[in-house]
Amino acid sequence: MSAVNRAAVEAVLRQYTDPYLNQDPVSAGCVRAIDIQGDRVAVQLELGYAAALFKNGWAQMLQIAIEGLDGVSSAKVEVRSVIAPHKAQEQIPGLANVKNIVAVASGKGGVGKSTTAANLALALSREGARVGILDADIYGPSQGVMFGIAEGTRPKIKDQKWFVPLESHGIQVMSMAFLTDDNTPMVWRGPMVSGALLQLITQTAWDDLDYLVIDMPPGTGDIQLTLAQKVPVAGAVIVTTPQDLALLDAKKGVEMFRKVNIPVLGVVENMAVHICSNCGHAEHLFGEGGGQKLAAQYDVELLASLPLSMLIREQADGGKPTVIAEPESQIAMVYQELARHVGARIVLQEAQSQAMPSITVSDD
Question: Between 307 and 36, whose confidence is greater?
Fold first, then answer.
């Protein structure tokens, strides 16, 4: 029996690709330790994204592979998640306790953006992250309903300066709906709305969040520009349907985020297919393949494709979105995949930005 060494263990690890980072653990820089004691091997891996439902299976797969090495009698692989803060976060004191901000946006309304934001937040939480959600849709806030928070519930005030976010299903939730009457329309001009959004973001006492998901209003107006210019957003998720009109507006959303230097993490396609509950017939009511075409056009990832489902709507309206209403369902698993992909894309974006050389211009 030949003696095993670090190079042999790394060679085995290089044969397996992390499906979210699209790299092997060694190339991705995930290996924190390789300890070899005779014929026993212990490996520690560190993922930069939340992956509680994935890491045990990943560890087991790598363990079996290492135990197949000549000279190894037993192997142990430990995988943990350590989520790093976005490098610009510390610029705003009110966001010092928030590591990463993810904007969920759409070019037009009615494409399931708020439902996606709610399920994304819950899925990130199930993956082991500390998560908050901010309802930035000032004119039509809906996250309070989706998280089952009773009408008229108000946040507490801390030190006469901070809103204490409400908590539901383990998520810290803040919305303009908590500060106004549900039946009173927000008849505000752009600057007032932008000011209210900034106040909600920076004067909420977020409690040590790995991710803050922001449910954006539809469109590419004042609120989107304010967010881009004033808040260090780690990345944006664009939600669309396969319909040509929705795709046209989604393209504008992608272009807007690119112009203000916010990375587009990928596209989520809602209402991709309808499956009849009576006969099982599948029909593409809003067109087919639109999300994939949009992702390909802008060289971003199609993060998830979800069906037109009455259950998704009913569960969100009932205050228990799909991820917690039916956590083992096929649709919930799609949201879990979405959460892991979003977290991994942020890690890749950070690595890419750090690899870019800084350019300075002098008068010499």
Answer: 36
Q: Which residues pair with 168 in a beta bridge?
A: 171
> Tokens in use for 47?
């993922």
Mean predicted confidence (pLDDT) in 237-264? 79
Spatial CA neighbour of 101 closest among 91, 112, 115, 111: 91
Task: List, in order of start, the domains of the chain with CATH numbers.
Answer: 6-81 (3.30.300.130), 89-355 (3.40.50.300)
Q: How long is the chain?
A: 364
* pLDDT, tens digit, 9 for 90 and up, residues 168-193: 999 999 988 887 765 655 556 666 77
Paired with 162 in beta bridges are 158
CA angle 96, 101, 107 (to 5 degrees): 150
Running DSSP on this structure, what letter comes out for residue 329? S
Characterise 221 by phi-psi region: left (phi > 0), alpha (psi -120 to 50), beta (else). Answer: beta
pLDDT at 40: 94
Q: Please give the C-alpha separations between residue 237 and each of 5, 267, 285, 292, in angstroms, as whole numbers.
A: 43, 6, 23, 14
Helix runs in the chain, H state only: 6-13, 55-67, 113-126, 143-146, 190-202, 222-230, 244-259, 290-297, 310-317, 322-325, 330-355
Write the pLDDT tens digit of every residue in 135-168: 988 777 889 899 999 888 899 998 888 999 999 9
Contact 117, 197 (CB under 8 A): no
Residue 274 has pLDDT above 60, yes or no: no
pLDDT score of 358: 46
In this prediction, residue 2 carries a pLDDT of: 64
Contact indicator for 102, 264 with CB cutoff of 8 Å: no
- 229: burial class by Cβ within 10 Å (0-12, 13-18, 19+)? exposed
Whole-model pTM above 0.85? yes
CA distance 203 to 164: 9
CA 345 remoteness from chain centre: 9
Question: What is the rounded average pLDDT for all residues in the chain?
Answer: 84
Collapsing DSSP to helix, strand or coil, 222 comes out as: helix
Query: Residue 362 burial by CB count (10 A; 0-12/13-18/19+): exposed, middle or buried?
Result: exposed
The alpha carbons of the chain give a radius of gyration, in whole angstroms, of 22
